Amino acid sequence: MSLTIGDTAPDFTAETTEGTINFHEWLGDSWGVLFSHPKNFTPVCTTELGYLASIKPEFDKRGVKIIGLSVDSVEKHPAWAKDIEETQGTAPNYPLIGDEDFAVSKAYGMLPAEVSGDAGDRTPADNQTVRSVFIVGPDKKIKLVLLYPMTTGRNFDEVLRVLDSLQLTANHKVATPAQWQQGGDVIIAGSVNNEAAKEIFGTWEEPKPYIRIVPQPS
């Protein structure tokens, strides 16, 4: 199963380090980030979990919930969390799913449907496709999918930047240009004709008729 932007994020019930959760119920009316890892005690993922924990207040400010996933059992997560705190300075402060039956990984297209057996017997290489980031909106629709190789650590500052863009464009008829950062100029959405744009934005810069630039709405 391949998920893409606009699809409904599959619901699931799973054991996590913060108890049993139903994903859609846990998400509620919030935005969410689901990010996954091929296996506990892998070096790149250790750095990622620690860094994300250190910037969790930034996600909290935006009303975004974070949840991680590993195919290893929940019982194995505390020992990894201890290593993460020792090496990265911050232990995970968000729930981690134990996906030892691969149900969530399969539902999100991160492992083939035919995968079976004991999760503990699988190596990181066996699970190397489980390196994903999904941003899910309050409507439970997938807004972003990022897939990373095992050798490249994820840039969670970029995830925050995308969240800022998604939340802005969900509430205003604009789009954000390349390299946009919070507070920067934006582009009037192509779905807004000039007559409607004048009512909403007044005036704008127009280097080309299809590029209408305005300050970021507040």
Could you describe the 3D structure shown?
The chain has two domains: 13-153, Glutaredoxin (3-Layer(aba) Sandwich); 172-214, Antioxidant, Horf6, Chain A, domain 2 (2-Layer Sandwich), CATH 3.30.1020.10. 29% of the residues lie in helices and 22% in strands. It is built from seven helices and eleven strands. The strands form three sheets. The chain has a five-stranded mixed β-sheet with strand order 5-4-3-6-7. Helix 2 packs across helix 4.
| Percentage beta strand | 15-25%
CATH architecture of the largest domain: 3-Layer(aba) Sandwich
Tell me the series of helices and strands, N- to C-terminal.
EEHEHHEHEHEEHEEHEE
Task: Kindly state the number of beta strands.
Answer: 11
Residue-averaged pLDDT, rounded? 94
CATH C-level class of the largest domain is: Alpha Beta
Count up the helices. Answer: 7
CATH superfamily name of the largest domain? Glutaredoxin
| Tally of discrete structural domains | 2
Strand order in space, largest sheet = 5-4-3-6-7
> What share of the residues lie within helices?
25-40%
Low-confidence stretches: none
Distance between the termini: 39 Å
| Major sheet summary line | 5 strands, mixed
The secondary-structure class comes to alpha+beta
